Amino acid sequence: MTRNHMLLLGCSLVLIGCFNPAPPATPPAPQSGSAQVADRVWFTGSSNIRNFSCNAKQVYVSAEAAPEDFDRTKEDGIPAVKRAALLVPVRSLDCGIGLQNTHLFEALAATEYPTISFALSGYSVEPSETVHRVRMNGALRIAGVERQVVVRGSAVRDASGQWILRGDREISVRDFGVAPPRRFFGLLRVRDEVTVHFEVAVRPLIDPLGVLVTSLQ
């Protein structure tokens, strides 16, 4: 066996030993009896070695209510909003492995661009008796690059009366100028596509000064 073959075998063994089985794609469910659903954002992806899931430990959501738009609230079946935004601090993302977190923060340039955000620009609702289908347009900003995206989700009322909005959106990180990590002489290659998942409570507030959403952008 040549020295290069021994090096390749050694790196492969290191990879197998360092990367544990992927955590579940869905974060743990809130504890039973909780009066308020916690807002959650996570993303799933894969490399040539394993699948992975990274959860945001901090999620900030803001929505400005449109109480004057009573007709839309009645037609959609959910509270009408003027504007809404979501923000996730990059360093709150946790993939369950410290080294992977470090590589993620480097790839997303967390020091220069510390947040990921989505600002709603418009939406439409297909109401039903149970699940309301929602189509959202907005600006997604990752690593300082902003792209207009369409996100689809569903809104349902839970047992406590809260409206919960759930959905996901597959994106290519290269669309935002992010180069997927490559490590161990190229033996580990993270794929370009990841799927962003979200589950947030719809809590629109009356905000005559318009500072709720702008503070998150």
Number of helices: 4
Query: Considering the protein shown, what is the CATH homologous superfamily?
Result: Lipid/polyisoprenoid-binding, YceI-like
Mean pLDDT: 79
How many strands, which pairing sense, and closed or not: the largest β-sheet? Answer: 10 strands, antiparallel
Oligomer: single chain
Question: In what range is the share of β-strand residues?
Answer: 35-45%
User: In the CATH hierarchy, what is the architecture at level 2?
Assistant: Beta Barrel
CATH level 1 name: Mainly Beta
Give the overall shape.
globular
CATH topology: Lipocalin
Q: Could you give the order of strands across the largest sheet?
A: 3-4-6-7-8-9-12-1-2-5
- Count of separate structural domains: 1
DSSP, total strands:
12
Provide the succession of SSEs. Answer: HEEEHEEHEEEEEEEH
Distance between the termini: 57 Å
What would you call the structural class?
alpha+beta
Radius of gyration: 20 Å
Helix percent reads 10-25%
Low-confidence stretches: 1-34
Overview of this protein structure:
The chain is α+β, with helices and mostly antiparallel strands. The protein has one domain: Beta Barrel (Lipocalin). Helices cover 17% and strands 41% of the residues. It is built from four helices and twelve strands; from the N terminus they run αβββαββαβββββββα. A ten-stranded antiparallel beta sheet has the order 3-4-6-7-8-9-12-1-2-5. The protein has a two-stranded antiparallel ribbon with strand order 10-11. It is globular, with a radius of gyration of 20 Å. The N terminus is likely disordered.
